[in-house]
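Our example copied in:
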Amino acid sequence: QVQLVESGGGLVQAGGSLRLSCAASGRTFGPYGMGWFRQAPGKEREFVASIRGRNTYYADSVKGRFTISRDNAENMVYLQMSSLKPDDTAVYYCAATTSLTVRGISQYDYNYWGQGTQVTVSS
C-alpha cells in the first residue's frame, strides 16, 4: 500500500522559512515525478512545484522563493520555503505519479496524495 506522509508544517512569521518533507512508502518513485500542491481556505488546490529527474517546475507565485528537491535513496521529497508571505498560508500536499510522460504541474497528473500539512504565515 502506497503512503505519502508530509511533515514540517507550522506557524511562521512573514519573511521566515519552513522545510516540508514527504516520506513515500509502499513503492519507489525514483524515476517518477513528485510534486507539491497547496489549498487555501475557499480556494481550489493549486500547483506549487514538481520534480522529475533533474527537471523542476515551479508556480510563478513561488519561483525564486521555494525549492523542491528529492532523495531517491530515502524515497523522500522536500520543499524548502523561504521569504514566506501570508498568501502562502494553505494546506500543503505531497503527490506522486507513476507516469513518465507528465510534467506534473496538474493535479490530474498524480495518482497518489498525502494527507496534507498546514502552513500558516502570520503578517
Notes: The CA atoms of residues 47 and 75 lie 21 Å apart. The two ends are 40 Å apart (CA to CA).
